[in-house]
């Protein structure tokens, strides 16, 4: 799991942790939908009753911000046809999204969705959070790719925050 030793500003820790848990759960849900072909309603029911804030296979999951979780998952599902070409464009040539591991596809889709639609969250926070989520599943080289791709997408949707170019 990613190192969360840096303390957020006072009063934001609980919300930040609940959002972080929602992001992790959203990526897991998107991964499950991609791999198993599960439907969104089944995923919502399973994650909200079994995963969010409960213990599963010996791991205790933080209570997640359920509305945030639902927004990210449903937004990715709704916008996937628009998000995937953006992610493809940001990936290195010769490595289309369909060749990327399913868990990384889920991370990139969720991060791209949030960069486009969740303006209430600073763009660099979105990138950092999804790099942390990716860190839970893959090695450092792949988290660097997540950082680079989401940074590029962040510049597209939020040039004022990231600086153009």
Plain-language structure description:
With 165 residues, the chain is mainly α. Helices cover 68% and strands 2% of the residues. A two-stranded antiparallel ribbon has the order 1-2. A hairpin with a 2-residue loop joins β1 and β2. α1 crosses α3, α1 packs across α4 and α4 runs parallel beside α6. The relative contact order is 0.13. The N terminus is likely disordered.
Task: Tell how many strands the DSSP assignment holds.
Answer: 2
The residue ranges in which pLDDT falls below 50 over 5 or more consecutive positions are 1-13
Number of discrete helical segments: 7
Helicity, in percent?
A: 55-70%
GO cellular component, one term: cytosol
Domain NusB/RsmB/TIM44: 22-154
InterPro entries: NusB-like_sf, NusB_fam, NusB_RsmB_TIM44
Family: Belongs to the NusB family.
Which key features would you list for this structure?
two-stranded antiparallel ribbon, globular, 68% helix, transcription regulation, disordered N terminus, mainly alpha, 2% strand, 165 residues, NusB_fam, RNA binding
Question: Summary?
Answer:
GO terms for molecular function: RNA binding. With about 160 residues, this protein is mostly helical.
Describe the secondary structure blueprint for this structure.
Elements (H helix, E strand, L loop, with lengths): L12 H24 L3 H12 L3 E2 L2 E2 L5 H25 L11 H16 L5 H13 L4 H18 L1 H4 L3
Antiparallel strand pairs: 1-2
